Amino acid sequence: MQIMDIGVQRNILNYRDLSSLAISSRRLCRLSNHSFLWELLWTKDFPSDSIPESLTKDLKSLYKQKFERVKSTKIAAHKRSVLRVQSQALVLERECKDLGTLLNGERRRLNSTLSELKNIERARQSSVALKIWQPEIIHTRQQDVVEQTPVRTDSRIHSLKMEIAVCKERIERFSRSICEKNSLMERVKSKLESLQYKPLPESCISRFQGSPKKAKITDKRIENAIKSDFRSLGN
């Protein structure tokens, strides 16, 4: 009893240790069920909650009920955190997709504007070349190019250059925003991965690769060992 008392007071023994002692033998079961041990554990694990005076005799069962309530609360809070991070990842992914659509649209617009500018430049060069003596075939071809361009070349070239500058600025802004969203999404996914539960380390998983039956048996034993912490509280 003194060993258990000192262990609990010095944070060496916790409720798992007392539960393990309880299933070791009848004598240790009787000793580890003493109320003053579970009162110490209650004070240490739930310092903000006082023990009800009407339930001071069966503190082990009271501790078990309190522990399960706290555990369920923490599990619910953890699930909410996971859902919150998952929603952030989905929102960022949708925003990246929308920005990618806008970026592709601006690139198509830029290519179209560059193509039109190239045709206008060629029409202006043809109009200048018409004032110079040339063979009849070349003169006729340049005349056709000028006739196919009904707008004024100088004003149209200026507007196209302005539109190209705007397209390039938008493309740069969209590309920068996509990079920032992708970087933020990587951080969110890393946070989500850290929040997700991993029952076995990679060493244990790789150890049983190639023998799924043995790995399945070991996983079952580990799962049973985890569940026994709460079952042993009722013994």
Provide the residue-averaged pLDDT.
Answer: 76
E-strand count: 0
- Assign an overall shape: rod-shaped
Give the helix level as a range of percent: over 70%
Largest sheet: none
Q: Which percent band covers the strand fraction?
A: under 5%
Give the domain tally: 2
* Unreliable residue stretches: 200-218
Element-level helix/strand string: HHHHHHHHH
Alpha-carbon Rg, integer: 38 Å
The separation of the N and C termini measures 19 Å
Q: Tell me the number of helical segments per DSSP (H or I, 4 or more residues long).
A: 9
Structural class: mainly alpha
Structure description:
There is one protein chain. This protein is mostly helical and 235 residues long. The chain has two domains: 2-57, no CATH class; 73-197. It is built from nine helices and no strands. The protein has helices spanning 2-9, 15-22, 26-32, 35-45, 59-129, 136-147, 153-195, 202-207, 212-231. The protein starts with a helix and ends with a helix.
